[in-house]
Amino acid sequence: MGDDTSIADFVESFWPLDMRFETQDALPFPECKEDLLTRYNPEVIKRIEQLIDQRDEKLNHYVSEGVEEYCEITNLVFQHRMHERWYPGMALGSRTVLELLINYFQTRQEPEILLDLGCGSGMVDIGLLQRLPTLKKVYAVDISAHALAVTKENAERKIPGRAHTLQYVQQDYTSEEFQNYLKEQLPEGAQCILTLFPMGGVSEVLQYVPQLLHPEGEILIGTAIRDNELGFKLPWKQAIEQLQYQHRSVAYHRGLHCEEGILHKQVTEKTCILLSRMTLQ
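Given the sequence above, the corresponding structure tokens read:
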């Protein structure tokens, strides 16, 4: 498992955050806008605001999931290096998943190869590479070239001796092109697939992931549940059970078995992070 440093201490020192910013619970974009305007190009913020409005319009009318808008927003955020101050709780949520994953692998066989679908800044992958000595290769997949550039910068800064173990893949993991690419790279499928906070939700990501999986592999999904997000107030224990039930139902219809919620952690008063594990039935 690497060194004897406690997992929480390791994660905190590896990935320091401005907690005054991160613990502001899920501020809507208009409330973040003024802070962003003082830090970044106003024209970029204006364009992001337009994209958010377009995406919300599609979602409100059930036209689509707003994938095109989401991809352009992501690209702009990473292009202009806004990811550390983009949205309260996003980095904290990802850092919490890193902590949960390290805890998880303490009691399970550590993977040799990891496939991360939507790697973002790459910090979760880099933290795993630093902490898990058996991890030999990580496929960092993202549709955004700018996200992969940030991942590469972070790897060269954080783990210069192991940065070569990251394989950067700029592709849409839902595409046939990516499916063919992965069959060439991993003919038997991926041992361990990771995806954090999938844009279209767990149901969307599970349309494409099972066919990428090794018969004895596992899918690990990090999701966030926020206070009152299910439409009615629930105690945390019941809210987590409700989300786990949804994951099990979706997994079953995709030919997967969803293990009982393996790990979760409340990170702020209103937000809890859940790590789910799925395998082929």
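Strands lie at 113-117, 137-142, 166-170, 190-196, 213-226, 256-258, 263-266, 271-280. Try to locate this feature in the token string yourself.
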